Amino acid sequence: MYVEKTSAPARKPVTVPGLKAMKAEGRKIVMLTAYDASFAAQLESAGVDVALVGDSLGMVVQGRTSTLPVTVDEMVYHTAAVARGLSSTLLVADLPFMSDRDVPSAMEAAARLVAQGGAAMVKIEGAGRICEVIAALAERDIPVCAHLGLTPQSVNRFGGYKVQGKTEEAAERLFAEAKAVEAAGADLLVLECVPAALAARITAALSIPTIGIGAGVDCDGQVLVVYDMLGLTPGKRPRFSKDFLSGRDSIQAAIGAYAEDVREKRFPGIEHSFT
Fold it and tell me: Model-level pTM?
């Protein structure tokens, strides 16, 4: 059966400099994950600012227990699929586990995600030695989204999916890492599962936008795994998420409600944050 495709109203494309302007103007950035063209089109129609092809696909699409098995080939495949569903939403793609083991490897993976996948930005977890990778990518005009706090690729070192930065020492280390990734050339920073007060402090100290997931309402924007916010992920929903499909009659209505709640600072609430 042929189904006529509907297109979203034309809007100005979201750009990397545009995200920084949104921070300066106090406008919240709305980000969601997507893994295929159909979901990407839903994000586009709902006016989501940034689509993230996360290596979370290993868990929510492939049914694995972590993000670690996801390959560069898989990330390129899913990124290209999402790109076909977008027109103005900015596309970000994860560098998967160990693709950032050195600068040449990260450069090759990032180049594929941009050239073959259509990504406008790549996301990379961690600081320390990763700052060298961020600097190398930035020098070659590949925009970078850094990712600090609970970094899922470090799950074995953390001993599970745990809130980060809870002690004074850990908080100061995370604050220093945030400043370091900005100095290295990152254009965006995801803060995952960190105390809301610490995320607010980092957000105020940086000139680049911060995107929170379990990091409180004071970040410059928010991101969720789309399957989590639709109540589709099997098992217990993460504390920092919310079922936006409940009480609504369509996926697009749910995504639209999420976008509106982020922009109006109604989400996340205290119950979705950590202290």
Answer: 0.94
